[in-house]
Design a protein that fits this description.
Layout (H helix, E strand, L loop, with lengths): L9 E3 L10 E9 L3 H10 L17 E6 L2 E2 L14 E2 L13 E4 L9 H14 L3 E3 L1 E3 L7 E4 L4 E7 L12 E3 L4 H12 L4 E7 L10 H13 L3 E5 L7 E4 L2 E4 L4 E3 L12 E10 L2 E12 L5 E3 L2 H16 L4 H30 L1 H17 L2
Parallel strand pairs: 2-3, 2-16, 3-6, 4-5, 6-7, 10-12, 12-13, 13-15
Antiparallel strand pairs: 1-18, 2-17, 8-11, 9-10, 14-15, 17-18, 18-19
Length: 372
């Protein structure tokens, strides 16, 4: 069986033409400009965290990342979450200024400080000259990002099945929709000439194995017309699947975030995905492995760790090629999901009491059932 990720870290989908101009779009993993990362920015300035990997931002037509926090100094928590992620608007200055950006906010921290904090986040992103997608308005219309590259028009949508959406009416909410609604969004966009890439915030946190529901959801979006699906939320790298000739990345890890990498070492790794576009198609995807060092700086992964990660990605990807292996994969993911949620429930019970815990999980269930 041929490995999905080649020796030189490329996912080959089609032949590149030397006579045809290419567009280059870089997709990065989770970024949280909060907690320890915010402290480092305050202490050492804007270039500190990304200085070693600045070359990867150069000569890119577009850079896309998942902003796993809100950018606000206002608002208040509306649910008893154990971890709140928020930073200042000026922290967006850590990114090189001579590049175009599109920011994905479809995640479970966009609403950490309520509707006020979410609106501030959107305002600050636009004020920085960046585009944004992954939210919905009061009419459930999805924010999409459509960018005209030199040779391609690319559109991006994002949804967060793992989100904690407001269940009441709000002018801005995280993009939480039923699968049938996601499919309809994609089918409408597919009637245009735009190349469509979809992001999903889904999966089991801290688990290297892909759950069945996440895989079925990604397949449905490819069937509807998406050219590729990129997943966040797991905080670790998962496998890659080629489905109907389209690439699905089930988890690309943490690009820059303050997380306990000592007890969970796999959370310090991430993948940068450079999409090479020609003739309105994704021809190749160049993959770059990164890691977060102990000083909360992003560096290139090298040496034995790079070779080990390469083997792990191809091994995890092989689970999708065999029905028996797939069932093992689903079982391991379900075990990790059960373990994680039981631990979360116990921790919340200890912190806030039984009544608050029941209220919180009851709200989550209603938001899942009624999509609001």
């Amino acid at each position: 069986m041929k490995d999905i990720l080649s020796e030189n870290w490329i996912v080959h989908l089609d032949e590149l033409s030397s006579e045809c101009p290419s567009d280059h779009v870089l997709f990065l993993g989770d970024i949280a400009l909060a907690r320890g990362v915010a402290d480092k920015i305050e202490e050492f300035g804007y270039k500190y965290n990304l200085d070693a990997v600045y070359p990867d931002f150069q000569k890119k037509d577009l850079v896309v990342f998942n902003l796993e926090c809100c950018l606000t100094e206002r608002g208040e928590a509306w649910e008893p979450k154990p971890v709140l992620m928020n930073g200042k608007a000026e922290y967006l200055n850590i990114f090189p200024s001579d590049t175009n950006y599109s920011v994905n906010v479809a995640n479970n921290h966009f609403l950490d400080l309520g509707e006020l904090g979410a609106q501030d986040t959107l305002d600050h992103i636009y004020e920085q000259g960046m585009d944004c997608f992954g939210a919905i308005d009061n009419d459930l219309k999805s924010f999409q990002s459509t960018v005209s590259l030199p040779n391609t028009i690319i559109s991006m949508l994002a949804y967060s099945p793992a989100a904690h959406p407001f269940i009441c009416k709000a002018d801005v909410n995280v993009s939480y929709k039923m699968l049938s609604e996601m499919v309809l969004d994609i089918q409408l966009l597919k009637n245009t000439d735009e190349l469509l890439i979809v992001s999903l915030h889904q999966g089991v946190e801290f688990c290297r194995y892909t759950d069945k529901k996440s895989r079925e959801r990604a397949h449905a979006l490819i069937d509807a017309g998406a050219e590729s699906v990129i997943c966040h939320h797991t905080h670790v790298i998962q496998g890659v699947e080629i489905y109907r000739g389209k690439a699905i990345f089930y988890g690309i890890g943490n690009f820059l975030i303050d997380i306990d990498t000592k007890s969970m070492p796999n959370t310090k790794y991430s993948l940068g995905l450079e999409f090479l576009l020609q003739d309105n198609k994704i021809k190749q995807i160049k993959v770059t492995p990164y890691f977060i060092n102990e000083k909360l700086q992003v560096e290139y992964l090298t040496g034995f760790d790079k070779e080990r990660l390469h083997s792990e990605i191809n091994w995890l990807s092989s689970f999708f090629t065999n029905p028996i292996f797939s069932m093992i994969n689903y079982g391991l993911a379900r075990y990790m999901w059960t373990k994680l949620h039981l631990r979360s429930l116990i921790n919340m019970w200890q912190r806030t009491g039984l009544r608050a815990s029941i209220k919180y999980y009851n709200t989550r269930v209603w938001s899942k059932l009624f999509n609001r």
